[in-house]
Amino acid sequence: MTDIAIGIIGGSGLYQMDDLENRQEHQLDTPFGPPSDVLVSGTLQGVPVVFLARHGRHHHLLPSELPFRANIHAFKQLGVQYLISASAVGSLTEAIKPLDMVVPDQFIDRTQHRIASFFGEGIVAHIGFADPVCPQLAALIADSASHLSFEGVDVHHGGTYICMEGPAFSTRAESHLYRSWGASVIGMTNLTEAKLAREAEIAYATLALVTDYDCWHPDHDSVTVEMVVNNLHLNAHNAQQVIRETVRRLHNAPFVSEAHSALKFAVLTPWNTVSQKTKDTLELLLRPYLSPDS
Questions:
Q1: Residue 87 assigned to a binding site
Q2: Would you list the DSSP string of 45-56?
Q3: Does residue 110 belong to any structural domain of this protein?
Q4: Which of 84, 121, 150, 244 is buried most deeply by CB count within 10 Å?
Q5: What is the DSSP letter of 63?
Q6: Does 55 count as an annotated binding residue?
Q7: Is 233 annotated as a binding residue?
Q8: For residue 87, with 0-12 CB atoms within 10 Å meaning exposed, 13-18 middle and 19 or more buried, which class applies?
Q9: 37, 214, 221, 293: which is the annotated catalytic residue?
Q10: 213 is in an annotated binding site
Q11: Which of 3, 212, 221, 293 is catalytic?
Q12: 189 in a labelled binding site
């Protein structure tokens, strides 16, 4: 099949793109096992895209159970160059209210039990990650969201996303700690994706959708599960509109991201010293840098 340049990851509440036409499911195998679910390709307003429900279409995977490497590798197999990740988050500041949208430009890693690299097993690579999202793609998402002018929804371009392990939410003491660090939102998935997308040379950015204030807020106890679930549905509706607008703009004006050459000088291990098994595992990622006789 023809390569699909634009990928979409749907988080909690966003399990499909309602306007996706010409749908085709792809049950892909990867060296890291199966992805979270089938990837669904199709067109949004005539633009080819491919969608994956991060937690599975029936939301059966905990954040710590997500096959992050398989998910990103599957997008790479389909030729994805730009990856838009929608994610439910809690707010860590009064200025970011439920239903707001945040396009973060930084992450802090509080995960504990995840493999966040394709490398190892006899090969070492160190990617640059000072700016963990693609600034051009992030700006495109933020501009698209602002252009749509959702009533009562503010769009925040920039901010720090705390990525915690989960599945339990923060303690109140942790929530106050993260606020003291100046963090903006908290979630459980996006940093791991961002690291792997960078290693896969895919431009990546997050559309963070606020469902509620984290437990630091004095009125947190007044927030019910029903309210949070309702916000998830509202966020999913708004997110689909933002993604459609971003896809349209990206299709009309594609760009070269620094992420697209992230591995150019990252690998330190001579290829001829790497085992055949590891070579087979990483060939898709390193193909642009291998000589014909490698």
A1: yes
A2: TTEEEEEEETTT
A3: yes
A4: 84
A5: G
A6: yes
A7: no
A8: buried
A9: 214
A10: yes
A11: 212
A12: yes
Report the amino acid identity of residue 195.
Answer: K
Q: How many CA atoms are closer than 13 Å to the CA of 114, on its beta-carbon side?
A: 27
1 occurs within a structural domain: no
Structure confidence at residue 273 (pLDDT): 96
What's the residue count for the chain? 294
- The CA distance from 258 to 178, in Å, is 30
Distances 77 to 11, 72, 164, 167 between C-alpha atoms, Å: 21, 9, 28, 30
Asked if 212 is an active-site residue, the reply is yes
Cα–Cα distances in Å, from 143 out to 72, 79, 87, 198? 25, 25, 18, 23
Supply the range of the domain harboring residue 243. 6-289
Q: Cα separation of 132 and 199, whole Å?
A: 11
What average pLDDT does range 145-149 have in this prediction?
96
Would you state the structure tokens that stand for residue 272, as one six-digit string? 């001829």
More confident residue, 217 or 220: 217
User: How many domains is the chain partitioned into structurally?
Assistant: 1
Does position 234 have pLDDT exceeding 70, yes or no?
yes
Alpha helices in 17-163 (DSSP H): 68-77, 135-148
**Residue 88, annotated as binding a ligand:** yes
pTM for the complete prediction? 0.95
What is the per-residue pLDDT for 294?
59
214 as an active site residue: the answer is yes
